């Protein structure tokens, strides 16, 4: 009612506000708009304000803080409730909790109080505590203790008078307990709605339509009304029992009291009987009606201990059960009449625990029932026995495959599985001439679980022709299901093993296990036509039983309905049919009464069909290329699917023109557009008449595959390798990619011939089903066995042609370059691994954890100034601050080597945020401390507390009076215990180490520490503090600190030589770029100086890196001492004679080094033979006139033809006697 009143009052005030100056009288208007029932409460009021106060008191109840917090803490997600609805409900409940800022001790007391109330076993005591509007921990404990003592005293009086449980006593007390439990649903007095029905409590309606017309009241036993509106007096026997005691006596006989526990469903306390002899869990019908649970119809019969006694299950429901503060969501409970307890918890509930202990108090030791083979076996279905081997080839002859050896562990597992199959009647001993071998493999869904498989690929499968019985077309089935509104899906347990086979076919299924020969009596897994036989049996089952709106697809059966009633009727008929045919369902995989389901790679709702998002997830997560090689692969992948992308040539152009990384905006937009277009092609209709092609690939760390039809992509798959999978050899990784792809898309590939393509020739040979290959690798042998039930052709394709899957594996496993990471490490004053990694992730820089560790461990400065010495752990507790500027720690660092008069650093650390302040000081006097604190207080305000050591400047009367006048408390450490001020002592070391590391990087002496102090403090404030898991700046100011290293500019974009695009070129032979000097740069533009001294602003897109001249073999040279010549008398250095030849020589060496580096990266094989120019035209070899790097430069730039004409030109000059001087001068 509070929500309705608030909304009505808001609309009323909005109406008055809209009227403005013409608004009518508020009180008279209010009377006109309220109903006559509400007017009774305000008829004595004389004005609007008093009437509004009465209505607020009437409809708005004062929130109960204790009860609101209990409801918030115990609220659980309900079945069918979405996460959005759940979080909104939690937010609504939190409004009445009166949450406010408290100290840590108060918060601790409130937390203990709430846990104390929620954890009480007695619902009566909890209810009495929740009646208090406010309650502290001590009052709650005292009140609960008094109630607990009173309850125990009452039980001592009532226990001797409890009669022996009889049917009459149970029924009387059961009615009493239920009446007491459900009387809280009485209607409220003042409402805006119409009158309530006298019989059901709902809105008024015709008696003939009343749902309570034929119901029996659980309170008085009379027909025609519900218990919540019953006006009969409750039996007086309820008054002498406490509610908790009454519930136990009513719901469970005294002889079963030891096995009874209190549970709750929807905050309603109930009694549950733990019954180890019951296979399922049940709830009484009357209790299910009181809880208003949704019934699912059922016709199952339950057999009692005496086989002649049976009880009918009227239905089942799904509820959330709370037992001992543990939530058991969506428990399936059968609904039975006349249960001796509210709930029976059977073996299906108890199996969730390792063991269930019930204390009886006997004198003998504990009785442990060992786990044994279950008595209840998987029964054979009552279906016609299919012919499994009707399509054997005429040349069929028995094959007895060679026996295999197994480890002791596998031997025991095989024997256990064989015993299980024998006890269930699935297999029997055999005298067959056929003999297949068993294989122990890992379960594909649980790698820690084993499975027993039979390898029929070497025996009967070689002579079995394919049964052409079709599977249902997935597209037709999905389209038909989309016309329904409600769905249920059922999964058959060990489906093949429920279908019996003809006796004549059993000999072909013979297999050897631990030296014995067995054969199947039911359809085994792994035979060629098992899928066709089983699908034929399911289709025949649906037709013979006349099941409507039922769609079987192998062991998955979907039942649908156009409305809830039709759906429930169809589900009921399906349950009746499987009960008659003796089929067994896997309840854990069955889902009932849903408005949407995921089936066979599609999401299905009424009138809506969406593809499974997993089909496109790898494509959507495909990262942009980070280097030229990755870009080449990406372009190749898009070109592979070019015919499915409209206007492909136009859309790929920006990506093909990309030369810088990360990609610019145009190239990145083209990349995302192509991904979207390719995804749209994959989302088109899957034509099952076209053959499927599975293309697979594997890298060192990832697997990938694509599913295609006539060249069009249908689905994509990628998976990272984990754990031991990373150490598999390349052959096993390639084979694993094939198996993972077939597992993922088996609903598309089953019963259809498809093609497998791999770039591993050995895998193609081993997986070829036409070859009887002897495989000694256990993994590949098990995988080949898993593929044995599929019809496929495997093809080898070279890696260069395996474009699409190769692009996915390389993209997801590409490693990032760490060229600039060392510069960031130095620029941040050499942080450690943790803070460095936090900075990298916060700025989204492309570096991995291993690269950060590698750079930090390889830093010589860090190794010298931050050696990792052994430090034993010394536990200690620090008084914790609750907000910034609450507690400050101060201390001096020094004396330090200095070039100025400041030889000390006053360090101040905020204990809450670890935010440091550092003040250079000339001395350690109290006046200096006061001066520094004045600067700090004027900026950040006054703290509550200052902690220091026993320094004389901190003990002086002058400083104490200064702090006392400002209301700042002080404390000091004890003598000889600097750990008492450990936080600031620690930061003294951190700051000084950061300063020295910055000095080392700048090649400055320690005496110049004041020059880098600001940078060191900036880095410490900006980097992660591992104690708080946040940066000091974020914790102090509650926003991110701006850093110059967070701008994504290339490292070469700094003042110095760069290459600028030449926009005006007279011919195509002119250089593409000019070398200029970069003087200033920002994230968009740069300022450059040309060779003639002109300056101009240019776009960053027109700049390129200018390689340094000090690079040899791809490695930067060590800096050499300056050897510049002395200036001449005119002030300019002399010009060397060989300047013209030195620059090309250095450039040639750099080009050769770059060429060698690229050759190593691409893995190309080059000849090591040195090419020499021919000796022609009487020169006696090119070296006779021009030697050394000149020929190399000419060949590199103009080719051998250019070198030839250059040599001819030199010969003409020589013949004309125009060349003078020595050969050295000419060179």
From TrEMBL:
SUPFAM superfamilies: Acid proteases (SSF50630), DNA/RNA polymerases (SSF56672), Retrovirus zinc finger-like domains (SSF57756), Ribonuclease H-like (SSF53098)
Enzyme Commission numbers on file: 2.7.7.49
Top-rank taxon: Eukaryota
Any one biological process term the GO annotation gives: DNA integration
Gene Ontology terms, MF aspect: aspartic-type endopeptidase activity; endonuclease activity; nucleic acid binding; RNA-directed DNA polymerase activity; zinc ion binding
Keyword NAD: no
CDD domains xref list: retropepsin_like (cd00303), RNase_HI_RT_Ty3 (cd09274), RT_LTR (cd01647)
Keyword Magnesium set for record: no
Alphabetized UniProt keyword annotations: Endonuclease, Hydrolase, Nuclease, Nucleotidyltransferase, RNA-directed DNA polymerase, Transferase
SMART domains: ZnF_C2HC (SM00343)
Protein's recorded name: RNA-directed DNA polymerase
Taxonomic placement: Eukaryota, Metazoa, Cnidaria, Anthozoa, Octocorallia
């Amino acid at each position: 009612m509070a929500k309705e009143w608030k909304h009505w009052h808001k609309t009323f005030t909005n109406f008055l506000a809209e009227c403005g100056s013409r608004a009518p009288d508020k009180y008279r208007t209010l009377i006109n708009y309220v109903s006559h029932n509400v007017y009774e409460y305000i008829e004595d009021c004389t004005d609007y304000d008093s009437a509004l106060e009465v209505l607020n008191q009437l409809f708005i109840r004062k929130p109960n803080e204790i009860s609101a917090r209990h409801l918030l803490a115990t609220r659980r997600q309900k079945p069918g409730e979405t996460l959005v609805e759940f979080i909104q409900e939690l937010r609504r409940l939190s409004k009445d909790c009166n949450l406010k800022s408290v100290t840590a001790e108060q918060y601790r007391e409130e937390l203990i109080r709430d846990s104390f109330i929620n954890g009480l076993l007695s619902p009566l005591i909890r209810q009495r505590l929740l009646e208090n509007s406010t309650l502290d921990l001590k009052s709650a404990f005292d009140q609960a203790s008094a109630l607990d003592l009173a309850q125990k005293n009452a039980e001592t009086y009532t226990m001797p008078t409890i009669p022996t449980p009889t049917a009459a006593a149970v029924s009387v007390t059961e009615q009493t307990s239920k009446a007491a439990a459900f009387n809280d649903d009485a209607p409220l007095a003042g409402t805006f709605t119409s009158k309530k029905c006298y019989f059901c409590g709902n809105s008024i309606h015709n008696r003939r339509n009343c749902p309570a017309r034929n119901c029996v009241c659980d309170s008085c036993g009379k027909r025609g009304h519900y218990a919540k509106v019953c006006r009969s007096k409750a039996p007086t026997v309820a008054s002498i029992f406490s509610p908790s005691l009454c519930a136990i006596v009513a719901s469970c006989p005294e002889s079963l009291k030891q096995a009874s526990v209190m549970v709750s469903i929807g905050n309603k306390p109930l009694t549950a009987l733990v019954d180890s002899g019951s296979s399922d869990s049940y709830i009484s019908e009357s209790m299910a009606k009181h809880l208003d649970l949704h019934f699912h119809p059922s016709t199952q019969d339950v057999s009692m201990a005496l086989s002649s006694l049976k009880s009918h299950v009227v239905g089942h429901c799904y509820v959330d059960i709370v037992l001992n503060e543990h939530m058991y969501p969506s428990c399936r409970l059968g609904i039975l009449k006349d249960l001796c307890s509210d709930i029976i918890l059977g073996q299906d509930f108890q199996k969730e625990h390792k063991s269930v202990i019930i204390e009886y108090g006997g004198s003998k030791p504990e009785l442990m029932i060992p786990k044994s083979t279950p008595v209840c076996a998987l029964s054979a279905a009552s279906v016609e026995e299919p012919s499994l081997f009707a399509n054997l080839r005429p040349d069929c002859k028995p094959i007895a495959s060679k026996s295999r050896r197994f480890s002791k562990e596998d031997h025991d597992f095989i024997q256990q599985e064989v015993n299980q199959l024998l006890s269930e009647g699935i297999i029997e001993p055999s005298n067959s001439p056929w003999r297949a071998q068993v294989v122990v493999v890992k379960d594909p869904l649980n790698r820690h679980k084993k499975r027993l498989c039979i390898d029929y690929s070497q025996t009967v499968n070689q002579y079995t022709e394919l049964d052409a019985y079709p599977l249902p077309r997935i597209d037709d089935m999905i389209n038909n299901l989309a016309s329904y509104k409600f769905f249920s899906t059922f999964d058959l347990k060990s489906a093949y093993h429920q279908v019996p086979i003809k006796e004549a076919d059993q000999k072909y299924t013979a297999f050897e296990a631990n030296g014995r020969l067995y054969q199947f009596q039911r359809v085994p897994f792994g035979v060629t036509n098992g899928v066709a036989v089983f699908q034929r049996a399911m289709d025949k089952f649906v037709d013979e039983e006349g099941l409507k709106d039922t769609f079987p697809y192998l062991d998955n059966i979907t039942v649908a309905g156009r409305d809830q009633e039709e759906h429930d009727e169809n589900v009921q008929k399906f349950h009746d049919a499987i009960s008659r045919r003796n089929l067994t369902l896997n309840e854990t995989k069955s889902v009932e009464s849903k408005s949407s389901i995921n089936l066979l790679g599609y999401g299905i709702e009424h009138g809506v069909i969406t593809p499974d998002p997993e089909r496109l997830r790898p494509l959507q997560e495909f990262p942009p290329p980070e280097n030229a090689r990755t870009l080449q692969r990406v372009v190749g992948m898009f070109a592979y699917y070019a015919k499915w992308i409209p206007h492909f040539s136009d859309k790929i152009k920006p990506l093909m023109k990309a030369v810088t990384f990360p990609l610019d905006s145009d190239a990145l937009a083209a990349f995302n557009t192509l991904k979207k277009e390719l995804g749209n092609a994959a989302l088109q209709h899957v034509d099952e008449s076209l053959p499927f092609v599975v293309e697979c690939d594997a890298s060192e760390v990832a697997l990938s595959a694509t599913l295609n039809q006539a060249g069009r992509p249908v689905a994509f798959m990628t998976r990272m390798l984990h754990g031991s999978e990373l150490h598999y050899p390349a052959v096993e990784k390639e084979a694993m990619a094939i198996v993972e792809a077939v597992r993922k898309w088996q609903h598309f590939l089953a019963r259809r011939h498809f093609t497998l393509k791999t770039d591993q020739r050995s895998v193609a040979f081993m997986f070829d089903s036409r070859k009887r290959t002897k495989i000694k690798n256990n993994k590949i042998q098990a995988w080949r066995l898993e593929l044995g039930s599929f019809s496929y052709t495997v093809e080898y394709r070279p890696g260069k042609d395996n474009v699409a899957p190769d692009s996915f594996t390389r993209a997801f496993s590409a490693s990032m370059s760490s060229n600039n990471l060392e510069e960031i490490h130095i620029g941040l004053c050499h942080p450690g691994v943790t803070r460095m990694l936090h900075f990298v992730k916060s700025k989204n820089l492309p570096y991995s954890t291993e690269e950060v560790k590698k750079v930090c461990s390889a830093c010589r400065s860090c190794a010298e100034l931050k050696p990792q010495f052994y430090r034993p752990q010394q536990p200690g507790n620090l008084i914790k601050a609750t907000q910034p500027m609450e507690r400050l720690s101060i201390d001096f660092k020094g004396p330090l080597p200095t070039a100025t008069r400041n030889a000390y650093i006053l360090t101040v650390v905020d204990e809450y945020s670890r935010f440091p302040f550092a003040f250079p000081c000339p001395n350690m006097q109290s006046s200096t401390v006061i001066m520094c604190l004045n600067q700090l207080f004027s900026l950040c305000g006054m703290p509550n507390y200052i902690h220091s050591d026993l320094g004389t400047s901190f003990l002086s009367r002058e400083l104490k009076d200064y702090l006392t006048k400002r209301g700042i408390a002080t404390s000091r450490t004890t003598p000889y215990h600097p750990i008492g001020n450990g936080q600031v002592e620690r930061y003294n070391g951190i700051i000084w180490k950061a300063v020295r590391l910055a000095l080392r990087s700048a090649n400055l002496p320690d005496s110049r520490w004041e020059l880098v102090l600001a940078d060191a403090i900036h880095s410490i404030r900006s980097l992660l503090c591992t104690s708080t898991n946040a940066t000091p700046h974020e914790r102090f100011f509650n926003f991110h600190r701006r850093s110059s290293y967070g701008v994504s500019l290339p490292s070469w974009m700094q003042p110095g030589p760069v290459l600028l695009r030449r926009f005006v070129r007279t011919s195509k032979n002119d250089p593409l770029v000019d070398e200029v000097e970069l003087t200033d740069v920002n994230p968009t533009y740069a300022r450059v100086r040309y060779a003639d001294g002109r300056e101009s602003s240019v776009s960053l897109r027109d700049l390129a890196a200018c390689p340094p001249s000090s690079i040899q073999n791809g490695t930067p040279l060590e800096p050499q001492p300056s050897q510049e010549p002395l200036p001449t008398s005119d002030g300019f250095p002399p010009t060397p004679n060989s300047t013209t030849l030195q620059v090309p020589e250095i450039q040639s060496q750099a080009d050769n080094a770059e060429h060698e580096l690229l050759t190593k990266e691409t893995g190309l094989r080059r000849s090591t033979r040195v090419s020499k120019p021919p000796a022609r035209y009487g020169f006696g070899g090119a070296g006779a006139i021009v030697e050394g790097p000149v020929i190399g430069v000419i060949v590199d730039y103009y080719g051998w033809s250019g070198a030839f004409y250059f040599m001819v030109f030199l010969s003409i000059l020589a013949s004309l006697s125009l060349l003078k001087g020595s050969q050295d001068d000419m060179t």
